[in-house]
Design goal:
263 residues; binds adenosine-5'-diphosphate; Rossmann fold; six-stranded mixed sheet; alpha/beta
Amino acid sequence: MKAFVDIHDVTHVYSGAEDGAPAVEGMTIRVHEGEFAAIVGPSGCGKSTVMKLATGLQFPTRGSVVVDGREVSAPVKLAGMAFQNPVMLPWRTTLQNLLLPLEIVQPHRSRLRKHKAEYVARAESLLAQVGLKGQGSKYPWQLSGGMQQRASLCRALIHEPKLLMLDEPFGALDAFTREELWCIIRDLHAQNKFTVVLVTHDLREAVFLADRVFCMSARPGRIIAEREIDLPRPRDLEITYTPQFIDIVHELRGHIADARAAA
Ligand code: ADP
């Protein structure tokens, strides 16, 4: 099957790296269209570097990065991104924050003024999908951390990206809110069928959400294991207490422990 995200034998050295050592080395990651992939690994192993390479914010020193059949040579427009810190503009309402990417990314930028009602309807529909119906007129500082993170997911999806990149998006939230967000992203993925790459250090999160998990070694990051998660879908939180789920988490934990020990 053709890969939607195809990172092939990539080594990346940051131009500012004092020691000249690569952040990631000989890395190959293939994610199919519509698949939910998770990348897990110890802190500093290069997970965010993978995100930057896949979205065209960095270009590999060696190897190739192909997304949707094209070699990545500029920031990838078909990607939406959400990070640990939602960074909403405090002087804009939630709805205005959602519309922000459309003011920047073409072809939406040219269409926005004329088709504003259509885009607002899309933003409101997304807010409803994440349980924030009718909250668009509130300012970000009037929302809880979990609500802001939901809004930032909507903002990442406003231009209907084919690829959603999530960099530790739930890391700053308490355990209950985080699990609520897992269910929201699970449902968004099931409804919208985009491809997802999630970077996380939470193994339970990776196993609950993903179809495929890639484990990275400590720096320089390499892929040390790739595990298909064959748990049935739709998954609800109860699955996280089953022996089958716990066994997979243990198995992945073993890979990460080995990687840390070898570092
Ligand atoms: P992770 O997301 O797994 O914590 P990163 O991808 O952020 O890891 O970083 C991998 C390595 O690359 C780290 O050692 C980090 O210090 C280094 N690094 C990240 N960004 C830069 C940069 N812009 N310039 C130089 N080194 C960097």
